[in-house]
Amino acid sequence: MIDISLTVNGERVSACVLPRTHLVDFLREELCLTGAHLGCEHGVCGACTVRLDGEIVRGCLVLAVQADGSVVETVEGLSDSGEIADLQQAFIDRNALQCGFCTPGMLIASQDLLKAGGVPSREEIREHLSGNYCRCTGYHAIVDAVEATAKAREAAR
Amino acid sequence: MKAPAFDYLRPSSLDDAIKLLGAHPDAKLIAGGQSLLASLNLRLSQPSHLIDIGRLAELRGISVNGGVLRIGALTRHAETMASPEIAAHAPLLTQAIHHVAHAAIRSRGTFGGSLANADPAAELPACVLALNATLVARGPSGERRITADDFFTGLFETALAPDEILIAIDIPVATPDGVHGFQELARRSGDYAIVGLAAAGKRSGTHLSELRLGWFSVGTKATLAPKAAAALIGPAASLARASEMLAEDLEPHDDLQASGATRMSLARVLLKRVITAMEVAA
Predict the structure, then answer these.
(1) Which residues of B touch A42 (CB under 8 A)?
(2) ipTM of the complex as predicted
(3) Å between A51 CA and nearest CA of chain B
């Protein structure tokens, strides 16, 4: 077991973990932050996407011990802070989710693109979300929601 | 699945990492971990220890010195993508890196890790072959320079000794007459390619010289196609002949995505696209 200390959604967390524990399992099972989902567990589906030191990562391809000393943000943190409130509302307005399993990953990956500013093209949106699988929506409504949010944010600047 | 159990070590210097590697023959190095953790989760690998070199500052940095671009082994793909030095001196890499996985993986995956992993379907091994790079490794007895041509020895196999660590990649800087091209075919953007080509050379008027064609996802390792490249050099260049010569250079494999014959056919399509984009007479 190895001691780690990190910041999760703004709170300092110290824990003792097995080296083989993935970041996403640590978040879900130790901290009860179950927003990040486990899909494929080998880096293909993107359901476990979280933010690590400001950048999006696969929660299944990072060990909890590697996140020692880092800042982690999950969909719960982004929701509570209001950072993605407009994006979440756009997902609801456009039915950009059905079962919702991929949605936390979609939101975090989308916000990663949106926080760069400007209005990305639909191609750029699709490219940035290419690492996130959705098996329900066919993606169209998701791209609509991201594009609408980008336009609304740009208009409000 | 979950990864098998292993011990975790985080050395604070490169020398310590090399010592640990020597002391634990069944250990594996972890840098970004974007291939290794997937293979651990799939239980394709069961190391005794992971030696985490991901925080070693000695392995970071991008610099240009005396006509050589040096890329530290721990340079993350996102850094490669954003680097003005790389865009100026090895534009092939800037073009290719967009095809390497997805944003959430490029934020962790490293240049050196991709090379040392030597996945035959990865883009960067083919790129360093095309760019005639030299890979710098360090072991207990010091540094060793290995040409890209000699580095990739087989399926996930390299010329690195068990106690050596890849520390940097040296690439001759692009000259004003330099040309490059990159193409890959994949089912989904960011997925491993069905077949791909990274090419670099020099152009004078409408003629090519020093052309190197680095192929990936064709056979068991990243491979140069010297006979096809030779057919594209100078005033007698012929794309049709180069296309034929690919059959002598490449040994495309069959897998669930495509048969070897399909791969060869697609390789010829990519060769035509890349050479045509270079605007030379062939």
Answers:
(1) 38, 41-42
(2) 0.95
(3) 9
